[in-house]
Amino acid sequence: MKRKLETICINCPMGCPLVVEEIDGKIEVTGYTCLRGKKYGEQEFVNPMRVVTTLVLCEDGTAQPVKTSGPVPKDKIFAVTEAVRNIRSSKDTKIGDVIIKDVLGLGVDIIATRDAI
Ligand code: SF4
């Protein structure tokens, strides 16, 4: 069976249009300008990944922005946001602090992107 994916490389503002096809078991990427786009197209085809940004509630009821320290599989994004929703960060949390270490065993941390207010 032949699979085809049309997508846009999101690694830089050029936004190169990519076409990814699996031909005879080999993944072919066209439309990229640099090798980052080729790698992105291959990853999107096999297992799309995203950095997750969201908010965590602090103990005092305010919200603090957080993100994953690296990309996670797209199908794990909801589970990651649920894990964040179920915790409270300390009012002493500073930018860069780890809020959840190795969230869901995915090999990335949830880190604060701003000091708690
Ligand atoms: S392929 Fe390269 S030049 Fe094109 S959008 Fe991706 S990173 Fe930018």
Can I get a quick summary?
This protein is of the alpha+beta class and 117 residues long. The chain is built from 2 helices and 10 strands, in the order βββαββββαβββ.
Tell me the β content: 35-45%
So, the CATH homologous superfamily of the largest domain?
CPE0013-like
How many E strands? 10
Low-confidence stretches: none
Structural class: alpha+beta
* Rg, nearest Å: 18 Å
Q: Order of strands in the sheet with the most strands?
A: 8-5-6-10-9
Helix count, DSSP H or I runs of 4 or more residues? 2
Distance between the termini: 54 Å
Total number of distinct structural domains? 2
Silhouette: elongated
Q: What is the CATH class of the largest domain? A: Alpha Beta
Helix content: 10-25%
CATH architecture designation of the largest domain: Roll
Helices and strands, in order, run as EEEHEEEEHEEE
pLDDT averaged residue by residue: 95
Ligands, ions, cofactors = iron/sulfur cluster
What's the CATH topology name of the largest domain? CPE0013-like fold
Largest sheet: 5 strands, mixed
Question: Mind explaining what this structure looks like?
Answer:
The chain is of the alpha+beta class. It folds into two domains: 3-46, no CATH class; 53-112, CPE0013-like (CPE0013-like fold). The chain has helices spanning 35-46, 77-85, and strands at residues 3-8, 17-23, 26-30, 49-50, 53-58, 63-68, 72-73, 88-89, 98-100, 110-112. The radius of gyration is 18 Å and the shape is elongated. Iron/sulfur cluster (SF4) is lined by residues 9, 11-12, 14-16, 32-34, 36-37.
